[in-house]
Amino acid sequence: MTNQELLEKLNSFLKEITEMLALGDMGLLKSEELHNTKHRIEDGLNNLKPQFGKIDALKIEKTIPMWRNTPKIGMFLNSSQVNPELSPLHILLQELIKSESGSEPVKAVAVPDLHITGTTINQAIADAKTLLGSHGGATSAVDRVHTVLHGYLKQVCKQSGISYADDASLNQLMNLLKEKHPALSMKNGNADQILKSMANVLDKLNPIRNNASLAHPNSQLLDQNEAMLVVNTVNTLLSYLNSKFS
Fold it and tell me: Could you tell me if 240 and 124 lie in one domain?
């Protein structure tokens, strides 16, 4: 097996673990799915041990238990039950990927403390921070940061007396603020182009949220690093807007 094939296998395992952790956060993971998938990945890692160096092979041996409990069938599990089962595997896979590729997972840009806020925004921020603090939570956090940004833009429009349609999209709200809010009047052409480009990125958030996050029951979810890219893009834009509207 080539190094690239090994990395692809490890990343596929990590994606499965990440998806199960996200389902656990929502209380939607069944016990049999947890144990069947976990055991299949453990068996796969044991079979791959000869591909690793001595240290990584020992890490696999230490993480994977020698015995297995018989799972109860048909139970939905919550994060307090799922995380202890999957977190050791999640950490192991990240370490193995880092060891084989020499790269680290994308880290989160902090959710800013917003000066303009509301009940829905505050709840979504609290949810996003909790998810980003959990293993594999970025996929679930995509929906929450989308809600934060959408609610924030609406709240800024309200406080500034800027009218908008009830079903206005992120991009429509952003364009309204660029046109009508004096704080976004750009004197620097390059900075204006950057903001316009970020507004165009917002167009992609709705399909990502609807088709590749856990906002809806989707079979193809964003990988952890791609989900973190979306989260960090939103948080970076929020930080900038927060500084302009404070």
Answer: yes
Sign of CA dihedral 184, 162, 117, 201: negative
Helix (H, G, I), strand (E, B) or coil at 196: helix
Neighbouring C-beta atoms of residue 69, cutoff 10 Å: 7
138-166 pLDDT, tens digit per residue, is 777 888 888 888 899 999 999 999 999 98
In the chain, the number of structural domains is: 2
Asked, for residue 107, whether it belongs to a domain, the answer is no
3-state secondary structure (DSSP) of residue 76: strand
Tell whether pTM > 0.85.
no
Q: What six digits make up the tokens of 9?
A: 């296998």
Which of 50, 70, 101 terminates a domain? The answer is: 101
Domain membership of residue 189 as a residue range: 119-245
Q: pLDDT per residue over 9-60, tens digit each?
A: 888 898 888 888 888 888 889 999 999 999 999 999 999 999 998 999 999 9
- Answer with the one of 51, 68, 101 that is the final residue of a domain: 101
Three-class DSSP category at 11: helix
